[in-house]
């Protein structure tokens, strides 16, 4: 579904990713872990078109997308939930969801999708006329994920959805991600909470200094002694 | 004296309506594209000259001249975006400011060359409306009502349509808006086109009230800028409030002193706001 092949990504003169390759299959949940500054967010930003790739290629559903602007990539069915949720603070919950279905294709189903989202996230239905500004951190993250679903995506990229949330809220959030996974969406998730993220995942990558250091299925990954020591604390 | 004050108050409110529209355009452009359109009042000036030329030199009916001016100024706004603002989007703030301030000189001298330095105006004879002791010029009243209608339409567009939603989203978080499938380039062009159409509309409202000269726009750019800062940059509701404050203060002050002193007072208010409450009356929060 998503094939990233040997991409080099730069911030000005500073190179953040070095020939990085990664794959996400149909209905697969893939997680990417690694220390701060490893290039995890950069990877997602490059895939969704917010950052240009200097070399290499990104293919989504067989189509090269590394030369497309971000707003075209969303239309193809690739949604990106940026770090911290980044909901629009001075739009209401409902307006945030509506703007999620801005693309032509999604606009046709907006009412139906809204109903589905409200059933999936009753909390958002209760707060639909509140400004997003007034939501708690967990609700904001939920709204950001729900908003990405409004575009009718096939693959959802989540950038550290649990960051800055209380432990109880984190469990709830992972429940949501699990529910989304079970509905057949493909997911590429960057996470600090390696233990919880691994439970949900099919495969995992470890990024360090802009390169893939390790990769494997969930079982392989959780048996790896380096991962056990550095990330799972075992 | 009381009657004089009451009249000044009423006229200040009428002026506030048109100023609100002017400030709205400047505010919208700043909120969405994040540039300060320094030559905004000068665009109004060009619009007024266009109306004058069409009416006086080519004998186009006034209403048709008005319609042409709105369309032409909308296109003018789009052209300015493509030729001046778009190439500078990634540039330093100071360079953007200098380029747009440079337009002031270009536009004013253009007006000098084409129309000369004399006052030019469209003569429209309208009766004076009186309510008790308050006398209002019909042209001011029409401008006020027209401005309110246009503001209402703009508000509806921002609140109720997908395009309006996209404009507000871009103003709040451009990068995230791109992830929603919004093409910022298109929204920027649209914003400058709307902003341009507004300068045309204000030219329509001003034409029966004022005669135009090449430096006509300067005080209105300044006035709009003061209002925008007073209400909070990018805050449309704040700009609306600020427009009426400035309109009333300058009208009332003009009664007691002179129009020059009134402008000085407006600037003093501006300086005080920047010193005491730089985020403006309503601040950045609460902006829609």
What does this structure look like?
- The complex is a heterodimer of chains A (234) and B (288).
- Chain A is α/β, with parallel strands linked by helices and 234 residues long.
- Chain A has one domain: Rossmann fold, CATH 3.40.50.
- Chain A is built from eleven helices and ten strands.
- In chain A, the strands form two sheets. A six-stranded mixed beta sheet of chain A has the order 6-7-8-3-9-10, with helices on both faces.
- Chain A is globular, with a radius of gyration of 17 Å.
- The model of chain A has no long low-confidence stretch (mean pLDDT 91).
- Chain B has 288 residues and is an all-alpha fold.
- Chain B has a single domain, classed as ABC transporter involved in vitamin B12 uptake, BtuC (Orthogonal Bundle), CATH 1.10.3470.
- In chain B, 75% of the residues lie in helices and 3% in strands.
- The radius of gyration of chain B is 19 Å and the shape is globular.
- Chain B starts with a helix and ends in a 12-residue tail after the last helix.
- The mean pLDDT of chain B is 91.
- Chains A and B meet through helix 2 and helix 3 of A and helix 6 and helix 7 of B.
List the helices and strands and how they pair.
The complex is a heterodimer of chains A (about 230) and B (about 290).
Chain A lengths: L1 E10 L2 E11 L4 E5 L6 H8 L5 E8 L2 E2 L5 H6 L2 E4 L11 H8 L3 H4 L2 H11 L1 H5 L10 H13 L5 E5 L7 H16 L3 E5 L3 H7 L2 E6 L2 E7 H6 L1 H6 L4
Parallel strand pairs in A: 3-8, 3-9, 6-7, 7-8
Antiparallel strand pairs in A: 1-2, 1-4, 4-5, 9-10
Helix pairs in contact in A: 3-7
Chain B lengths: L1 H32 L6 H18 L4 H24 L7 H23 L12 E4 L2 E4 H23 L1 H11 L1 H6 L4 H23 L9 H16 L4 H21 L2 H18 L12
Antiparallel strand pairs in B: 1-2
Helix pairs in contact in B: 1-5, 1-8, 1-9, 1-10, 2-3, 2-4, 2-8, 2-9, 3-8, 5-6, 5-8, 9-10, 9-11, 10-11
List the main descriptive attributes of the protein structure presented here.
heterodimer, A: 234 residues, alpha/beta, Rossmann fold, 6-stranded mixed beta sheet, 11 helices, 10 strands, globular, B: 288 residues, mainly alpha, ABC transporter involved in vitamin B12 uptake, BtuC, two-stranded antiparallel sheet, 2 strands
């Amino acid at each position: 579904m998503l094939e990233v092949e040997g991409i080099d990504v730069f911030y000005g003169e500073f190179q953040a990713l070095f020939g990085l390759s990664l794959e996400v299959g149909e209905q697969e949940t893939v997680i990417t872990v690694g220390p701060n500054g490893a290039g995890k967010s950069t990877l997602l930003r490059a895939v969704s078109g917010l950052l240009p790739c200097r070399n290499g290629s990104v293919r989504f559903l067989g189509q090269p997308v590394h030369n497309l602007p971000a707003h075209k990539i969303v239309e193809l069915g690739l949604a990106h939930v940026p770090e911290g949720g980044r909901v629009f603070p001075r739009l209401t919950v409902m307006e945030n969801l509506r703007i999620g279905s801005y693309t032509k294709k999604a606009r046709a189903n907006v009412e139906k999708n809204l109903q589905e989202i409200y059933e999936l996230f009753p909390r958002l239905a209760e707060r639909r006329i509140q400004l997003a500004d007034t939501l708690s951190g967990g609700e904001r993250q939920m709204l950001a994920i729900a908003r990405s679903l409004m575009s009718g995506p096939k693959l959802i990229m989540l950038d550290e959805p649990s960051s800055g949330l209380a432990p109880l809220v984190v469990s709830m959030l992972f429940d949501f991600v699990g529910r989304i996974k079970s509905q057949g969406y493909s997911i590429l998730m960057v996470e600090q909470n390696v233990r919880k993220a691994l439970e949900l995942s099919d495969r995992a990558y470890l990024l360090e200094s802009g390169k893939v250091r390790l990769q494997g299925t969930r079982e392989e990954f959780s048996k790896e002694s380096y991962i056990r020591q550095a990330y799972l604390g075992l | 004296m009381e009657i004089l004050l009451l009249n000044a108050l009423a006229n200040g409110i009428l002026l506030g309506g048109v100023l609100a529209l002017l400030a709205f355009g400047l505010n919208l452009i700043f909120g969405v594209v994040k540039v300060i359109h320094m030559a905004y009042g000068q665009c109004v000036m060009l619009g007024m000259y266009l109306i004058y030329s069409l009416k006086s030199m080519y004998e186009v009916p006034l209403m048709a001249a008005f319609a042409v001016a709105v369309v032409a100024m909308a296109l003018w706004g789009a052209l300015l975006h493509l030729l001046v603002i778009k190439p500078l989007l990634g540039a330093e703030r100071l360079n953007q400011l200098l380029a747009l301030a440079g337009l002031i000189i270009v536009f004013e001298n253009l007006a000098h060359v084409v129309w000369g330095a004399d006052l030019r105006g469209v003569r429209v004879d309208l009766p004076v409306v009186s309510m008790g002791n308050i006398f209002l010029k019909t042209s001011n009243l029409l401008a006020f009502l027209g401005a309110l209608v246009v503001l209402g339409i703009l508000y509806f567009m921002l609140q109720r349509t997908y395009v309006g939603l996209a404009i507000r989203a871009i103003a709040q978080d451009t990068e995230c808006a791109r992830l929603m499938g919004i093409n910022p380039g298109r929204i920027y062009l649209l914003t400058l086109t709307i902003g341009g159409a507004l300068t045309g509309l204000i030219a329509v409202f001003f034409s029966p009230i004022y005669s135009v000269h090449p430096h006509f726009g300067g005080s209105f750019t300044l006035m709009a800028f003061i209002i925008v800062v007073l209400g909070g940059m990018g805050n449309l509701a704040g700009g609306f409030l600020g427009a009426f404050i400035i309109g009333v203060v300058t009208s009332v002050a003009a009664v007691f002193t002179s129009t020059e002193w009134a402008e000085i007072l407006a600037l003093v208010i501006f300086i005080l706001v920047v010193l005491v409450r730089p985020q403006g009356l309503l601040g950045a929060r609460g902006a829609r």
